């Protein structure tokens, strides 16, 4: 057993050495053309108001910029490639991002063509109010369940030759393969998780393994070739949108993509849906059976699976309810929205844990309104979970795992909420801090979190940033047929602060 532990430790050391070497090589390569460490956006803007910025080399999230709310100066024909289109509550973060963003762009008047797979459930795609310029082009999925590249490409070519050509092409992750993307200059790929981030997730998962529990597959050492593969093919995409500040930094330093091709736009959600509504929240509490004497209502939402941290949360709650004779957490209630194998386990914790199943959007908004604090215990470092932003817009403080993407973009300080290392003890301690702070402090944090989310993470803010990026990299702009340089900031109508 000792020999096995020594071997595992040796493998981990080799892995960390390889990562360090890759990072060092990337830094040497990149330092020839990079700018100094990026300053705080507020400090940068404060010194730049009197001169024009080049958006393509802007080092921070575009969410910090205030683009014109007026109707767009030019309407674009946009092609979107996405593996699946969301259906009701059956959607991950990537699909929800695709829907929220492109519905907002269509409402702005842009012509949006969605190339995606047809559903096996025989449901019809909905008609979206005020977004009639969205057109769907579906193909049967490939045998592996992905978007059939050959069929989707043929549809794209047909639409590109119909009327006017596409002004810009957008792919959600590898919705459009890099082999086909490399020939398109007016293209942007949004990344909702990259292989480099999975290494952190794998380290956490390995550290959390119980005695005798097998190591997850693929093993840590197998991740390095996947990172190298991504470094090689990411260069085929003309422009990259990182959905967190951390990923933007990794794409520049580790993946060695020139800074003028990497743009950070943190995901936003619909601010008309997710907003404070005390009456709606109180009604939801009554509906699901939360008693009036509850001292604290904690909520979680999403897939109830292992990599979302539910084994940790389950054990932390089990111990918290059992310790001190159950007195400390006697009046604490936990609401769990979502579906997955850990739902049944949560039900076994007793009457203080209410498992609600998956919720439609309107019910989910009411769910957030019923909470005092929202907790996301994920042990998956890839991407940014939309539930954080939904909760913040709903006026809640948020608690999340101390991953770089979360602390770098969302929970940037204690005014917004709480962070914790991924362990049972740390999660229990975070719950105790939340309980000790009480509703007064939680309300203050929630108000601060909402102000930050309204300023940075609304669907309107996200759509404005993507619209400007698409105008900047569009076919007509690149061919210099446009009189305005949309790659500058500010231009008339922008509202720099």
UniProtKB/TrEMBL annotation:
Residues in Glycosyltransferase subfamily 4-like N-terminal domain copies: 92-272
CDD domains in UniProt: GT4_PimA-like
Source superkingdom: Eukaryota
SUPFAM superfamilies in UniProt: UDP-Glycosyltransferase/glycogen phosphorylase
Full protein name: Glycosyltransferase subfamily 4-like N-terminal domain-containing protein
Species of origin: Iris pallida (Sweet iris)
């Amino acid at each position: 057993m000792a020999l096995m532990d020594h071997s595992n430790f040796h493998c981990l050391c080799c892995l960390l050495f390889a990562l360090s070497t890759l990072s060092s090589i990337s830094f040497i390569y990149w330092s020839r053309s990079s700018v100094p460490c990026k300053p705080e956006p507020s400090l940068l803007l404060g010194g730049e108001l009197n001169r024009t910025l080049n958006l393509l080399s802007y080092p921070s999230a575009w969410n910090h910029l205030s683009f014109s709310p007026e109707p767009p100066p030019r309407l674009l024909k946009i092609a979107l490639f996405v593996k699946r289109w969301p259906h009701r509550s059956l959607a991950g973060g990537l699909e929800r991002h695709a829907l929220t963003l492109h519905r907002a762009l269509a409402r702005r008047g842009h012509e949006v063509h969605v190339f995606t797979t047809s559903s096996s459930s025989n449901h019809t795609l909905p008609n979206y109010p005020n977004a009639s310029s969205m057109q769907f082009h579906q193909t049967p999925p490939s045998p592996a369940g992905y978007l059939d590249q050959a069929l989707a490409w043929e549809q794209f070519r047909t639409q590109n030759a119909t009327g006017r050509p596409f002004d810009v092409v957008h792919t959600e992750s590898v919705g459009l393969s890099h082999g086909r993307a490399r020939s398109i200059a007016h293209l942007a790929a949004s990344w909702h998780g990259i292989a480099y981030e999975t290494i952190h997730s794998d380290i956490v998962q390995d550290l959390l393994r119980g005695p005798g529990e097998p190591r997850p597959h693929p093993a840590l050492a197998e991740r390095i070739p996947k990172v190298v593969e991504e470094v090689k093919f990411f260069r085929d995409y003309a422009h990259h949108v990182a959905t967190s500040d951390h990923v933007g930094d990794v794409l520049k330093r580790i993946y060695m993509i020139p800074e003028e091709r990497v743009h950070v736009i943190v995901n936003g959600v619909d601010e008309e849906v997710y907003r404070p509504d005390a009456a709606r929240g109180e009604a939801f509490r009554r509906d699901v059976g939360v008693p009036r004497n509850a001292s604290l209502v904690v909520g979680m939402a999403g897939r109830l699976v292992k990599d979302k941290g539910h084994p940790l949360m389950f054990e932390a709650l089990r111990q918290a309810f059992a310790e001190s004779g159950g007195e400390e957490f006697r009046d604490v209630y936990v609401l769990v929205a979502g579906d997955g194998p850990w739902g049944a386990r949560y039900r076994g914790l007793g009457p203080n844990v209410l498992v609600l199943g998956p919720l439609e959007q309107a019910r989910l908004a009411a769910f957030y309104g019923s909470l005092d604090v929202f907790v996301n215990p994920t042990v998956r470092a890839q991407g940014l979970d939309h539930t954080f932003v939904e909760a913040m817009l709903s006026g809640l403080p948020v608690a999340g795992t101390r991953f770089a993407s979360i602390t770098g973009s969302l929970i940037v300080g204690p005014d917004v909420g709480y962070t914790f290392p991924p362990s049972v003890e740390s999660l229990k301690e975070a719950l105790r801090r939340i309980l000790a702070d009480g509703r007064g402090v939680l309300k203050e944090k929630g108000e601060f979190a909402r102000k930050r989310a309204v300023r940075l993470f609304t669907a309107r803010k996200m759509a404005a940033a993507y619209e400007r990026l698409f105008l900047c990299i569009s076919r007509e702009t690149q061919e210099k047929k446009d009189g305005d340089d949309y790659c500058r900031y500010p231009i008339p109508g922008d509202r720099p602060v």
